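Field reference: "sequence" (input) and "structure" (output). Example, Chaperone protein HtpG:
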Amino acid sequence: MTMQEKGNISIHTENIFPIIKKFLYSDHEIFLRELVSNAVDASQKIKRLAAIGEYAGELGELKVKVAFDKEAKTITISDAGLGMTADEIKKYINQIAFSGATEFVEKYKDKGDEKAIIGHFGLGFYSAFMVAERVDIISQSYQENTQPVKWTCDGSTEFEITEATREGRGTDIVLHVAEDSVEFLEEFRIKQVLDKYCKFLPIEIEFQEKVINNPTPIWAKSPSDLTDEDYLKFYEELYPYSEKPLFWIHLNVDYPFNLTGILYFPKVKNELQLSREKIQLYSRQVFITDEVKDVVPEFLMLLHGVIDSPDIPLNVSRSFLQADGNVKKINSYITKKVADKLGELFKADRVGFEEKFDNIGLFVKYGMISDDKFYERAKDYCLFQNVDNKFFTLNEYAEFVQENQTDKDGNVTYLYASDVKGQDGFIQSAKKRGYDVLKLDTVLDNHFINMLESKLVKTNLKRVDADTIEKLIDKGIAVDTILSDSEKETVKKVFEEVINDTTKVVNLEAMPADEMPALITQNEFMRRMSDMSRMGGGGMGMFGAMPNNYIVSVNANHSSISKILHTADAEEQKKLAKQIYDLALLAQNMLTGADLTAFIQRTAVNL
């Protein structure tokens, strides 16, 4: 008896296909991912049935083959998987609400890991109509005494099922490509989509007689079976032109959610680079997206690598993450794993950790700023580096400066430089007092400093050029001045005339005679607010708009200042004051252009 059946697909609206075509998927190329994934699922299912004794036939080669015929305008996806009978096609393909996987899992859930064999028949299959004007399914079920069948649908709700011929078990999906999608009839375009979505599918995918995927990527293997070389080779496979990573973390958890993956720490210096090599998100080795901001904490977005989880909820097209409890748990798990790994590295090889801290520090500081739980874990291995390149943990440093850098009110001051070369004069001044100076010169350090002050008790941080050294750490010991009040006023007027700048306030200060004759400083609070505003600190726009104000502290006890007072000629006084002021500008890297040239020439003449 010849089989021929026509019917209507049981869906609730005549307009389902235009909706699928326009809205269901964010990108039309997804059709190939869905159809190849379905073919892989069907192949894995037959493997599973054979493993549990439900299928006794020869498995044979389980490759999924993708082919195209430009002249005939067809793309064909073939597998040697379960196959379908006419009744199964009617059930799984026509009744859109059902998924073949649901029944399959229900039937075999007590015989193994059902999560590994869930298929995606149903809506995934219908993505074919985004690019095809007609779709044929030719299928031969694995079950004995069943006939090959052909299902045809032209994108309306009508279908036809007829007898067919097919060599062996499995399914061919034949897409008759529509005029608006002929781009997918080019070899390079199909290869591009397969490379993007199917590169690590667990069954071999053949295209143009070549296997295009790696079915056993290293994240699916046990860490104990892998060498450092394996991890480095895989990194090169993911990011062919990148420098070697610093180290990596192999994620592997099956409770309370399933997650595997490898996260690599790349070499990142001072810039918060918006990296093109993002973390890739997979679901059972099918590529989903590289937009992982909900799954991975923001401070780890600079990491590279792969995360694979069947438990990350996706919408019907698998294209977007939806923030729910599982995603939050995964986010917390990744944070903890990274924190623990860094702690292990620090304990195992502190010297190596210090050598890498230029790169690691960016992640550690970013994490401590943005996540309190990470701060609690990382505070034990976050390192301070001083200007002499010695490293300290936060606790070690507190102990190191406690005695010498506590002011008269019992507050500890950490001095820091943001430009070691440019602030050298101020650093030397601090060192004369036996003070230590930290190097905090990365793009994150403004925020890091503010965060530390909010966490550390009776501790503040001041940039080494924020004031005279006596005021930075006020020990309550007054230095006497050798000038009278009227002499101070005379000197102040000379400097004000020479400087002639309303953004600079001249103060005569009693400083040790061996200090510089004049220092230019900027108030720590105002400078910090201004810096953060320029970096985009919320609500600080008013500080960014204000001019930078400076204090010119003239050392009343310096011999050069006495020289000004003992010179009767007003022009000579100004000339001396100008030299002193230029020297102060030079110390702050504020002497540029013609002024710098003139200064060098004057100095050369004087020498």
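Confidence is low (pLDDT under 50) at residues 97-102, 112-122, 315-320, 538-544.
The first strand starts at residue 4 and ends at 8.
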